[in-house]
Amino acid sequence: MGSGKSTVGELLAQRLQVAYRDTDGDIVDVEGREVADIFVDAGEPYFRELERAAVREAVATHTGVLALGGGAVLDDGTRELLAELPVVYLSLDVEEAVRRVGLNQARPLLAVNPRRQWRELMDARRHLYTEVARVVVATDERTPEEVAQAVLDALELKDA
């Protein structure tokens, strides 16, 4: 959350001349409502089921750059799907995350005490991110262009 996955993903797709896709965007398209609204109206378990299905479908059909929501790795099946793929974990510290995300945006998992909740989320998820990631790229104090270049370098990919 706040790592820049959408911005960096779009830059990578442009530089590699492939399509970009975001599974949260897929869910919004299917549901006709924003992720925050799904959380409020239907609950997190419902959203996670939509997310599992969106990731399965995207991994099976998409050949470009794919961005997943931060909670996608909570699912064992999703982690298995990602095991052989060139997954990149974009890391950042809490102060940078709060600066980027802000305190007034629609982030359902950060509704109360965003700094504490972000730390708790990361404590619960970080090991899962590193488990599935082929590489970890720090995003702190880097521009999206610098992060995109670091991803290309880490995966030993060249611009198209």
Structural write-up:
- This protein has eight helices and four strands, in the order H-E-H-H-H-E-H-E-H-H-E-H.
- It has 160 residues and is mostly helical.
- The protein has a two-stranded parallel sheet. The chain has a two-stranded parallel sheet with strand order 3-4.
- It is globular, with a radius of gyration of 15 Å.
- The two termini are 28 Å apart.
- 26% of the residues are buried.
Could you give the topology of this structure?
Layout: H1 5-16, E1 20-22, H2 23-31, H3 35-42, H4 44-61, E2 65-67, H5 76-82, E3 88-91, H6 94-101, H7 114-132, E4 135-138, H8 144-154
Parallel strand pairs: 1-2, 3-4
How would you briefly describe this protein structure?
The chain has 160 residues and is mainly alpha-helical. The protein is built from eight helices and four strands, in the order αβαααβαβααβα.
Low-confidence parts, pLDDT < 50 over ≥5 residues? none
Q: Percent of residues in helical segments?
A: 55-70%
Radius of gyration (CA) equals 15 Å
Shape: globular
Q: What is the end-to-end distance?
A: 28 Å
- SS strand fraction: 5-15%
Structural class: mainly alpha
Q: What is the mean predicted local confidence, pLDDT?
A: 88
Major sheet summary line = 2 strands, parallel
- For the largest sheet, list the strands in their spatial order: 1-2
* Series of H and E elements: HEHHHEHEHHEH
Number of strands: 4
Count of separate DSSP helical elements: 8
Oligomer class? single chain
